[in-house]
TrEMBL record:
This is Putative nucleic-acid-binding protein containing a Zn-ribbon. Pfam families: OB_ChsH2_C (PF01796). Residues 58-118 form the ChsH2 C-terminal OB-fold domain. InterPro entries: ChsH2_C (IPR002878), NA-bd_OB-fold (IPR012340), Thioester_dehydratase-like (IPR052513). It comes from the Bacteria.
Length: 142
């Protein structure tokens, strides 16, 4: 679905909105080799095929595959935070902040199940005051 003309806007091109205005991640699967990418491309980054891609909605559950606890950053970026990469059902891997955990390595279990959640992209807005929508990971509650 196209970007709504009112209401929040996507902070990244692979964030889409359903007819109810709820955000989701749209990924693209290569028709030739099955590789998955977040953004639409002219050619597959895995096999270089130009046979096209099939878009699909990414499930919001996945597994944490790597993280880094960031304790120093650029001015204006609040620290600490956990920068993480998670693999989601369907084959897409995304990078985002992992929230709801401590900032020490022993606070983050390896290979934990995570859930993709959407937020207001640090409160940033465009020139018309429309809020951007970003995403983050949270540990999945069992």
């Amino acid at each position: 679905m196209a970007q709504p003309e009112t209401g929040p806007i996507a902070a990244k091109p692979h964030i889409k909105f359903d007819p109810d205005g709820k955000p989701f991640i749209e990924a693209h699967r290569c028709r030739a080799c099955g590789a998955v990418t977040a953004d639409a491309r002219l050619a597959c980054p895995a096999c270089a095929s130009r046979d096209g891609f099939d878009a699909f909605r990414v499930k919001q559950t996945g597994k944490l595959i790597a993280y880094s606890i960031v304790k120093r950053s650029y001015p204006g970026i609040a620290t600490p935070f956990v920068s993480a990469i998670a693999a989601f059902d369907g084959g897409l891997a995304l990078k985002a902040n992992l929230v709801g955990v401590g900032f020490e390595p022993e606070a983050i279990a390896p290979n934990i199940e995570v859930r993709l959640t959407f937020n207001e992209a640090l409160g940033r807005t465009d020139a018309e005051g429309r809020a951007y929508v970003g995403y983050q990971f949270e540990p999945q509650k069992s």
